[in-house]
Amino acid sequence: MRTGMTLSTIARRLALPVAGFVMMVIPGAFAEERPVITTTNASADEIREFCTNIADAARDQRYLLQKQELENLQKDVDERIKTLEARRAEYEDWLKRRNDFLKSAEGGLVEIYKKMKPDAAAAQLAELDPEIASAIVMKLAPRQSSTILGEMPADKAAALTRILTAASDPNTSKDPS
User: Fold this and answer.
1) What dihedral angle (degrees, nearest 10) is formed by the CA atoms of 108, 111, 113, 117?
2) C-alpha dihedral (155, 162, 128, 110), degrees to nearest 10
3) Which of 48, 69, 113, 161 has the fewest CB atoms found within 10 Å of its own CB?
4) Quick one: pLDDT at residue 59?
5) Taking a C-beta distance cutoff of 8 angstroms, is the pair 160, 152 a contact?
6) How far apart are alpha carbons 41 and 71 in whole angstroms?
7) Which residue did the predictor score with more confidence, 79 or 138?
8) Residues 48, 54, 55, 59: what is their CA dihedral angle, to the nearest 10 degrees?
9) Which has more pLDDT, 25 or 123?
């Protein structure tokens, strides 16, 4: 989804195509009803006049039914938009609380690794997810980070170094999508 587009904007843009689709799928929406004449005494002029007289009423009735169906669909779309907006607000609140928790936990976690001996920190960081470990190493002082990386197995240290260099590369996109 592009930045700046709200659900109501998307719904408004989709309303006309949905309305057109509904008009196409309503049975008999575009078919003209033709009366069956059972008598043979009716002349062509009488038949034409009869058809002309009822054509407008039938068309008006079809349009009224289509309008009612579109109004019902619009109400349904509006209800769904409200539900989605409520869920979005709920998700944003959850995400904010999660990010606040992570920030507070992150600060405490970095402090723990700052106070550890380099060999013990290296052993624990080697067992962590490489992205988490690299985030912790990045927040430590350079001298302490280099000592910890020196104590780690070479393959683990190389993996963390790759992540650290990718994170500091200005050509790396900031957008995760």
Assistant:
1) -140
2) 130
3) 48
4) 84
5) yes
6) 45
7) 79
8) -170
9) 123
